[in-house]
Amino acid sequence: MIHVTDQAKQYLEKYMTPDTKLELASDAVGSACSDEGVLSLKITKQPNPEATETIESNIGNFYTTKKQALLLDDDLTIDFKKNLQALELKGAHVGLITPRLLVIQDI
Question: Cα 88 vs. chain centroid, distance in angstroms?
């Protein structure tokens, strides 16, 4: 489950339309962060075909790959940090996952 705070929801609404989908994507290309790469939030009409896993949220389903789903916490929160003008992804068990969740609009 992903809980999107009211502040994060308000931030995301300016990018979303009724037919968009939300995908938690990982891009390892050019990343020195880890083998899994940098996690981003992709707003798209068609998720990556490998993003077959669904994670429920209070604003609709998020899609991700099976590999990424195994690495994520079961209880996630996306919040908007006004001082950074960025989204933050946290897990209830692991704490801060991504302090600046990149939003990619792929429409």
Answer: 9
Cβ atoms of residues 40 and 27 within 8 Å: yes
pTM over 0.85: yes
Residue 28's domain comprises: 2-106
CATH for 96:
2.60.300.12
What is the total count of domains within the chain?
A: 1
Which residues, including other chains, have CB under 8 Å from residue 13's CB and lie 6 or more apart? none
Greatest Cα pair distance in the chain: 35
Q: What pLDDT tens digit does each residue of the chain (107 aa) get?
A: 999 999 999 999 999 999 999 999 987 544 444 455 689 999 999 999 999 999 999 999 999 999 999 989 999 999 999 999 999 999 999 999 999 999 999 87
